[in-house]
């Protein structure tokens, strides 16, 4: 793994396309990620766990976690569709290190990577360049991964205001369950909440903290008792049309901030109240858009999928569920008081130039 893993290992040419639309990607994966690298990427934690504790081996694990190669590892797992398996696999590392407090930082990083995958895994599987372009920038400021590697990938979007400091206490994962987390320790609290029959797309605490409400692609909304860990007896059916692209959610408007509409013929895109944060190099992103489209259809956040897309469904960036509430969109005219995330896109590498996100 030390010599086999590398940045953009399969030579993905654009950040705009989902993996499913990359021509010949399967063959490219087989060529660029040979069987021995695929095996070691999937099972190295199992081999470590099966080995008696060894200080030198622990140092090797630390070297991986302290190097940008850890992101190349996640990239390779996504391309071989094995990313979800890394979550239980990483649990083996704290088990192996139990009783060796001098390596507790390794355990903390392993848990941080787990949370990273649980939040961003589905999106990375959908379009792997966004591991670097979207996932890392939206990681909480106190995340070990963010603190260690953000400076290594400087040419991405930046959360200029409203960035989360820690991982959310409640989150959805890559299935139909919801997990509670201890925000101080990063450890899961109890068993997952089960009741939905499809992926969970949104989650929130009630104002008094005694209930959790979740929405799912199974077209229901459920109310949970976090103490009893039980859902409401009858789920409420939701109207999917209310969450479609034609009916974007406009959240309650909150200090006074005027916003410019992000129509394509403005030649820039902004998700911030500060004009210096705009994305100006938009020619590739808007290429091929008709004049009528440019005049009428803006960029905005799809609150269901989390993607901000441009013409011809080009993927610009992805927003995690915890950051979508009060998120700036093209229809935001007034925000009182200022509170939602604002993005600095001024240095963001994207499209065919996405690889420039990494400092050489």
Structure description:
The structure is a single chain. This protein is an alpha+beta fold and 360 residues long. It has helices spanning 25-32, 35-49, 55-65, 69-79, 86-90, 92-96, 104-126, 130-138, 144-149, 283-286, 291-296, and strands spanning 158-161, 170-172, 178-180, 200-205, 212-216, 220-225, 230-231, 236-237, 307-309, 315-318, 342-344. The strands form four sheets. Strands 4, 5, 6, 7 and 8 form a five-stranded antiparallel sheet that branches. The protein has a two-stranded antiparallel ribbon with strand order 1-11. Strands 2-3 form a two-stranded antiparallel ribbon. The chain starts with 24 loop residues before the first helix and ends in a 16-residue tail after the last strand.
